[in-house]
Write a structure and sequence with these properties.
single chain, 150 residues, mainly alpha, binds zinc ion
């Protein structure tokens, strides 16, 4: 999903959290994490293309699926589980709860938008497939092939 939609959805969810819990720390951490989770694209881009880092080329590559391997470390159900464990040990600290909700709604929206299976957002499953884009994101890969054929 494109960044502007993540900004809008994160702002909406953060607003709902604020209205519900009256916690600016939970709202702020939700807003920031819902947007900044995509920072994991930088690792995959730099790993494949190296430096110098060109923002325009990065955006074109990431949002038009030009990367052959997607580690996507923050886009995973496992990170939500780990954050949930940490949150339970901190008595559901508002900052951590906000990050869980920010990451969580972002991943769900990406999953729905990309029309991929649930397992696509499992880090362990992708690891087992060596993070190969065409294997782990087959629907995105098909769209990429079709757009090139036109
Ligand atoms: Zn994303």
């Amino acid at each position: 999903m494109k960044p502007q939609y993540h900004v809008a959805s994160s702002a909406l969810v953060a607003g709902i959290l604020y209205i519900t819990f009256k916690s600016w720390s939970m709202s702020l951490s939700c807003l920031l994490s819902g947007i900044l989770i995509d920072i994991d694209h930088v690792y995959d881009y730099v790993k494949e293309f190296g430096f110098p880092f060109k923002v325009k080329d990065f955006v074109n590559t990431v949002y038009h699926n030009g990367i052959s391997r997607l580690t996507f470390v923050f886009h995973s159900w496992e990170i939500l589980l780990l954050l949930g464990i940490v949150a339970s040990f901190t008595n559901w600290n508002a900052w951590i709860a906000g990050v869980i909700i920010g990451f969580g709604h972002h991943i769900v929206l990406d999953k729905l938008n990309n029309e991929e299976r649930l397992r696509t957002y499992s880090f362990i499953w992708r690891w087992g497939k060596q993070f190969e884009f065409e294997t782990t994101f087959p629907n995105d890969a098909k769209r990429k092939m079709n757009s090139r054929a036109r």
